Amino acid sequence: MDHQMVKCFQFKTDSSMIRLSDSSDQNDDTIIEIKILQNSDNRYSSITWPSADLLCRFMLANRTVFMEKTVLELGSGTGICGIMAAKIGAKVILSDQNVFASELILKNVELNNVNAQFIPLDWGRKSDLLNDRIPTDIDYIIGSDLCYEDEQQFEKLLLTIAFLLRNNRQQSIPFYMSYHFRSSNYQIECLLRKFKLQSKLLFYSDNLKIYLYEITLI
Ligand SMILES: C[S@@+](CC[C@H](N)C(=O)[O-])C[C@H]1O[C@@H](n2cnc3c(N)ncnc32)[C@H](O)[C@@H]1O
């Protein structure tokens, strides 16, 4: 039988986290708590993954950058990263590929009393990408632990990112992605070039093997 449980996450401003050049954040004692309802149904989207913690800490350390900006999250899962973005004052659109994720995401949005929209967005699926609901006034795209299966999954994700960046009114926006290194079989660099994208490594957590990249159009 599947179980549901609420997990409480607490984030503090972290002086070791990278600050973006346009951040005016100071080290302070801000604490943000997020409650997340999780399912024990073995779906990737039903639990919160370790790289979500890094992306949340990055946004909290740079919250003045995200404040009042429009943020689209891909592969939201339980929704924790989008909820963090909403808590620090961003206008948030969460997305994932399936209806199971959308149910959990919407419950978590309500549980944390934040405003955020959900859109279904299956990477690489034309009908989802050409849908009117896809925003074209995005300031930042975010995503945590989105590449974990095979190279085709990477490819679909990067195709989607390239499409979203090219179709956005402002094309120079970044995609902030936390990436949990699991296998050297996947080589993101070749695929980035294929879609005319480039990456910059912003942060690396050695003990967890989690990277934080900024991906932009070349
Ligand atoms: C490992 S989970 C990470 C969830 C969440 N971002 C986190 O870090 O806790 C991967 C997420 O990517 C989503 N995903 C996988 N393939 C996808 C696709 N083709 N389109 C949209 N979302 C996808 C899954 O449904 C799942 O929510």
Automatic annotation (TrEMBL):
Domain of life, per UniProt, equals Eukaryota
One CC-aspect GO term: cytoplasm
A GO BP entry: methylation
Coiled coil ranges (UniProt) are: none
Q: Which UniProt keywords apply?
A: Methyltransferase, S-adenosyl-L-methionine, Transferase
Q: Which Gene3D superfamilies match?
A: Vaccinia Virus protein VP39
Q: Which GO terms describe its molecular function?
A: methyltransferase activity
Entries under CDD domains matching the protein:
AdoMet_MTases (cd02440)
What Pfam family does this protein match (any one)? Methyltransf_16
Q: Which PANTHER family match?
A: HEPATOCELLULAR CARCINOMA-ASSOCIATED ANTIGEN, HISTONE-ARGININE METHYLTRANSFERASE METTL23
Q: Which family does it belong to?
A: Belongs to the methyltransferase superfamily. METTL23 family.
Name by which UniProt lists this protein: Methyltransferase-like protein 23
By which gene is this protein encoded?
METTL23
